[in-house]
Amino acid sequence: APAAPAPAAPAPAAARPAEPARPATEAKAADANGPREGTWGAEVGSSGLDIRFPQANLLRFMSPTLALTVGGGAGLTTGDESTSALQLRLGVRRYGARPTPLRPIIGGGVIASVFSLGGQLGNETVIGAYGEVGAAYFFSPHVSLGATGELAITSESGNGQSTVNFRGSLVRMLAAVYF
Prior knowledge:
Blueprint: H1 24-31, E1 40-45, E2 55-63, E3 66-77, E4 83-95, E5 102-116, E6 123-140, E7 143-158, E8 161-178
Antiparallel strand pairs: 1-2, 1-8, 2-3, 3-4, 4-5, 5-6, 6-7, 7-8
């Protein structure tokens, strides 16, 4: 019986066909779902914990899913018992993976507020930690809209009293641009 032909040896690596390049539209779609590492962002939001005025944050993306945040808010109300407030925040925010434009958000950090309550009420200082959970929809790598809910534990002192409180806000609306 004649011998069966020997199987052909695999082609050397240099002779193998190259993997097809990822289509440009696929790469563009992945980038459209949020910022890249090194991106900066500016965010404005509705009132949050301890302050009844709009707030703003500066974001710095350490990766496509992790951002450092610094920001706060300030405001003034007038009338018989005028109130002024200043709040500062420093935190970390994690965004879900980028396969779709809608990405979950989870984050936390430290918070400090100072209130001047006017009239006989005096001043109040608030320090503590906060956490946030929500989602953001990325229309492009440069624009998103989102919402978060927040919880905080704070120590409040003023007028000779000191208390520990749990606070929360159900919905805080966010609008951001990235550059």
